[in-house]
Structure formats: structure tokens, C-alpha cells
Design a protein that fits this description.
The structure holds two protein chains of two kinds. Chain A is mainly beta. Chain A is 0% helix and 57% strand. Chain B is 0% helix and 54% strand. Chain B starts with a strand and ends with a strand. The chains are: A mainly beta, B mainly beta. At the A-B interface, strand 4, strand 5, strand 9 and strand 10 of A face strand 5 and strand 10 of B.
Chain lengths: 113, 111
């Protein structure tokens, strides 16, 4: 069965510091991968998605970037965090036959101080 | 106007009640629709897909009305464990993978 891992679970970072969040998927190949952010009490905002190694699509301009160095690895990064980057970061995957059904990792709760 | 809109609630119902949530979407080209459940400070989990013909899974029934561009979720015989936030999700195109999430409707089931 497929599993998805995210780490760390929680993170407190100062403004201006760098960020690297990692997501890995097991038990599937060639998944679509997604990064979402959820602000407190709000819905999910799609940040990036990837249909293959090295292929990244950005949904909104922001202080973040994403990379997919391996088929089942998706990384979210920032060179300098802003206060507004605080939130709950969720990685998700989807695979055939129905790439529309997405399954989420446990998330990383980021607080920028 | 938001692409996907839900009544935020909260809905407070007694155990055993029937409760219904509605969700409207603005993009008429949307292809697939889902309901997710999210517990406090946890990741969303897929509850059910929503098909044009309507579909049922135990106490849960989902329906789609393409003409009016809304989907609904009906929960019968509510349990305490149904307390959660329910997210409506609309995908912009077949297998495009880009989903838009509503802000969610919060349900609290009380004894």
C-alpha cells in the first residue's frame, strides 16, 4: 500500500531564515505530487504541483520554491522566510487510474517568528 | 467570488440527526468533485468522490447538480465521531490534478 511521509511535524523558524520541507511517497511510481498551505481556519491553497522529475508548476507567486529531484521526493524551500509563510504545509500525491483523487501526508506546522 | 464556496457553519447537531452540507463552484468546466474530512490539526482525508448519478457510502450520500453547479453531502444518523470539518473539492479538468478546496464546513455532533 502507498504511504506518504513528511518531516518535520512542527517547525519554529525566525524571519529571514531558510526553509526545507521534505515529502516522500512509498508504494507507487510516477505519482503527481502537490504542496498545499493551509492558514489557520482556512481552506487549502495549492502552491506547487509536479507531474514528473524536474517538472514543477507554480500556482501562486510567493516566497517559496519546489523541487522534485527523484520520482517520489518533493521538496519545498525558501531562502528567507516571511511572517506570512506561517501555516500548515501539506504534501499530497495522486496516481492512475484516477489522478484527481489526492492523498495527503501528515503535514508540517510551520511558525515563523 | 471564490471558485468554491461552502457555508462555514458551524453546524451543531445532536447524535442521530441528519445534516446536509452544500457547496457551490463557479467553473462550469470542472470535471471531478470530492468531499474530504479534516479533523482538528490533522491532514484532510478523502471521504468520497461525487458522481453525476449520486453515490452513497453507508450513512453518507453525495450528489452533484451540474446545471446549478453545486454538490451536496448528506450525513444520516450522525455519530459523535462525525465531528470534523468537511471540505468540498473541485478539480478543474480531467486528470489535470489541480484541485480547488473550499474553506470547509465545521460539524459538531453532541450527545
Amino acid at each position: 500500500s502507498q504511504t506518504i511521509h513528511q518531516w518535520p511535524a512542527t517547525l519554529v523558524q525566525p524571519v529571514g531564515s531558510p526553509l526545507s520541507l521534505e515529502c516522500t511517497v512509498e508504494g507507487t511510481s510516477n505519482p503527481n505530487l502537490y504542496w498545499y498551505r493551509q492558514a489557520a481556519g482556512r481552506g487549502l491553497q495549492l502552491l506547487f504541483y509536479s507531474v514528473g522529475i524536474g517538472q514543477i508548476s507554480s500556482e501562486v507567486p510567493q516566497n517559496l520554491s519546489a523541487s522534485r529531484p527523484q520520482d517520489r521526493q518533493f521538496i519545498l524551500s525558501s531562502k528567507k522566510l516571511l511572517l506570512s509563510d506561517s501555516g500548515f504545509y501539506l504534501c499530497a500525491w495522486a496516481t492512475p487510474p484516477n489522478r484527481d483523487e489526492q492523498f495527503f501526508g501528515p503535514g508540517t506546522r510551520l511558525t515563523v517568528l | 467570488r471564490k471558485e468554491v464556496e461552502q457555508d462555514p457553519g458551524p453546524f451543531n447537531v445532536p447524535e442521530g440527526a441528519t445534516v446536509a452540507f452544500n457547496c457551490t463552484y463557479s467553473n462550469s468546466a470542472s470535471q471531478s468533485f470530492f468531499w474530504y474530512r479534516q479533523d482538528c490539526r490533522k491532514e484532510p482525508k478523502l471521504l468520497m468522490s461525487v458522481y453525476s448519478s449520486g453515490n452513497e457510502d453507508g450513512r453518507f450520500t453525495a450528489q452533484l447538480n451540474r446545471a446549478s453547479q453545486y454538490i451536496s453531502l448528506l450525513i444520516r444518523d450522525s455519530k459523535l465521531s462525525d465531528s470534523a470539518t468537511y471540505l468540498c473539492v473541485v478539480n478543474r479538468g480531467a486528470n489535470a490534478g489541480k484541485s480547488t478546496f473550499g474553506d470547509g464546513t465545521t460539524l459538531t455532533v453532541k450527545p
